[in-house]
Amino acid sequence: MNAFWTEPDFDNHEVVHFVHDEKRGLTAIIALHSTHLGPAAGGTRFWHYAQPGAAMRDALRLSRGMSYKNAMAGLPMGGGKAVILASEDRAKTPEMLAAFGDAVEGLGGKYVTAEDVGISVEDMVAVKQRTEYVSGLPVGEGEAGGNPGPFTALGIYLGIKAAVQHKLGKDSVEGVHVAVQGTGSVGGGVARLLAKDGAKLTLADINSDNAEALASELGADTVSAEAIMSVGCDVFSPNALGAILNEEGIARLDCAIVAGGANNQLARPEHGAVLAQRGILYAPDYVINAGGIISVTMEYLCRRESAPCDINEVRKRIALIPDRLKTIWQESEATGSSPDRVADAMAQKLIGRG
Length: 354
Ligand code: NAD
Hints:
With about 350 residues, the chain is of the alpha/beta class. It has two domains: about 5-70 and about 80-130, Rossmann fold; about 150-290 and about 320-350, Rossmann fold (3-Layer(aba) Sandwich), CATH 3.40.50.720. The chain is about 40% helix and about 15% strand. It is built from 13 helices and twelve strands. It has helices at about 50-70, 95-105, 120-130, 150-170, 185-195, 210-220, 245-250, 270-275, 285-290, 290-305, 310-320, 320-335, 340-350; strands at about 15-20, 25-35, 40, 45, 80-85, 110, 175-180, 200-205, 220, 235-240, 255-260, 280. Strands 1, 2, 3, 4, 5 and 6 form a six-stranded mixed β-sheet that branches. The chain has a six-stranded parallel β-sheet with strand order 9-8-7-10-11-12, with helices on both faces. Helix 8 links the parallel strand 11 (about 255-260) and strand 12. Helix 1 packs across helix 13 (about 340-350), helix 4 (about 150-170) packs across helix 10 and helix 4 (about 150-170) packs across helix 12. It is globular and about 55 Å long. The two termini are about 30 Å apart. The structure holds nicotinamide-adenine-dinucleotide. Nicotinamide-adenine-dinucleotide binds next to helix 4 and helix 5.
């Protein structure tokens, strides 16, 4: 086995915790990439990995992404991520969640967790019984927090409008054609907001019934999940999986802009430059999709009485996403560096690694 710190995804993470509680059925990795700006914040993923190495890579990559995302969103939080290694049958038990809560509590506030893929609000409520370092819990009407999906969608919608203005010179998305990959919590929210403004939408989801139902509600078209990346459109909005922007995927694109919520869209760092060479404007994923973490963080800080609990404060902060993107695009044009590289350099500086 290679030394852990020579793994390609290891990026001077401050500390990586391996948790194994055999009696309560928990195996987890909690990676803290940076606590420079505050406690490392980032969700918990519950996933079955065929190879444990893949769980490690996920924890390393996702925790670094959270450092960058939180820094660029102006939040007083560092970046971390937890991965619970699920068995093949994906059995999740109260004992396992309790053991996970104890592990988070044991870090004494250096890591703050929330939902990610495979973890529900109910799971976080269970974790909360063992630790106070949790967010993404049910909140009251008009309060910051709760399900982050709609806030993520709002930031992406505003980011798409900024990209359309920047690249196409249009002040409205009316008649602008957006191809939406994934019509779940985030993609569905983005599609609804764009439809209100009169955008022309093409939707796709591997769950084609979902895409069809939303399309008939919004008067949109659908295509198969295989075809969505080749649709001739103004904006391709990826809201499903990561790593879709690889050589083959980028070659298929027939759009002017890529702007969507999926995490880790670039398969490898060099693919940002490949997009730029094709003249496609890219909205760096961790900048445009920060609405959810802004909401979850405000909820956490509100509970600790160090921030207002008002949902309008969350909206105000999400409304800053378009300006952040425009700054990145302007610097990219001025320097010739691709937008993802510009964003990475900005984020690294903010976390004291510039
Ligand atoms: P979700 O599970 O609600 O929706 C994802 C949808 O994508 C599902 O409907 C699924 O069927 C579909 N899908 C999966 N593979 C597909 C494929 N190959 N082609 C087309 N559709 C496919 O998840 P979500 O919360 O909407 O998250 C979507 C993406 O956004 C994920 O990458 C997630 O990491 C990222 N993200 C989510 C949030 C949030 O607040 N929920 C915040 C930041 C980033």
